[in-house]
């Protein structure tokens, strides 16, 4: 009983510390950067798995079956990913409204204009990606028909014009979001030394483009007939 009370006390102290931390500007930025890094890592893993689509339905199905062969791990990973995503969205909204409030307060004297299209559209590209994730998760997970292999569902959806177009536009939005988000993440982590600026500039373009090619190429692969042997 005493041990249980100690754990509750420690948990309460941690929550209080985190609430205080999240109220600070650096706290919000660190949460955004850390959650962004974790989401980017997931995206990289997901891109690696989805690349199996280009090898054919057999190989993609093997990949999907392997993942779902560990339902408990998938559940834990899914819940963790949801928490990270909600933290990223929630803190992002806090920063957006704080920035908007500050901008309106000093609009006449010192109006600051962001110098890139990506930075100015972060809230909107983020909102688009959020909507896409809801539709995508429902289509391939929650709303998946019983007994239908995921590889066949992929072919069914990406053979349709409207879903394919929505998918491509969504990954264009994600690429724009990553263009500024990736740079901002590196700045928050302190990787802004002049020695690395050239590499960072290349990565802020290369990383979004790589994801856009891998994911955005999937519907093009199906709609242009490249997946005839899928």
Shape: globular
First CA to last CA: what distance?
59 Å
- Determine Rg (CA atoms, Å): 21 Å
Strand content: under 5%
**Total beta-strand segments:** 0
* Helical segment count: 10
Helix and strand succession?
Answer: HHHHHHHHHH
Helix proportion: over 70%
| Sequence stretches where pLDDT stays below 50 over 5 or more residues | 106-114
Helix vs. strand class: mainly alpha
Average of per-residue pLDDT values: 86
Largest sheet: none
Structural account:
It is a single chain. α2 crosses α4 (71-105) and α7 (122-142) packs across α9. The protein contains ten helices and no strands. The relative contact order is 0.11. The chain has 230 residues and is an all-alpha fold.
Name the descriptors.
0% strand; globular; mainly alpha; 230 residues; 10 helices
């Amino acid at each position: 009983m005493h041990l249980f009370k100690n754990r509750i006390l420690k948990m309460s102290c941690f929550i209080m510390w985190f609430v205080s931390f999240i109220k600070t500007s650096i706290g919000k930025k660190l949460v955004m950067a850390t959650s962004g890094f974790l989401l980017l890592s997931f995206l990289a893993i997901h891109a690696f798995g989805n690349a199996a689509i280009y090898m054919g339905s057999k190989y993609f199905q093997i990949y999907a079956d392997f993942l779902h062969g560990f339902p408990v791990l998938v559940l834990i990973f899914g819940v963790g990913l949801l928490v990270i995503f909600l933290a990223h969205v929630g803190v992002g909204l806090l920063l957006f409204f704080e920035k908007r409030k500050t901008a309106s307060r000093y609009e006449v004297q010192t109006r600051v204009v962001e110098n890139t299209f990506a930075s100015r559209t972060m809230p909107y590209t983020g909102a688009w990606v959020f909507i896409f994730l809801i539709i995508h998760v429902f289509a391939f997970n929650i709303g998946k028909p019983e007994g239908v292999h995921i590889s066949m569902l992929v072919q069914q959806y990406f053979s349709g014009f409207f879903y394919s177009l929505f998918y491509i536009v969504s990954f264009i939005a994600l690429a724009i979001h990553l263009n500024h988000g990736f740079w901002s993440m590196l700045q928050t982590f302190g990787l802004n030394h002049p020695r690395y600026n050239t590499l960072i500039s290349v990565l802020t373009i290369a990383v979004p483009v790589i994801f856009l090619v891998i994911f955005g190429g999937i519907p093009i692969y199906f709609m242009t007939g490249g997946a005839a042997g899928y």
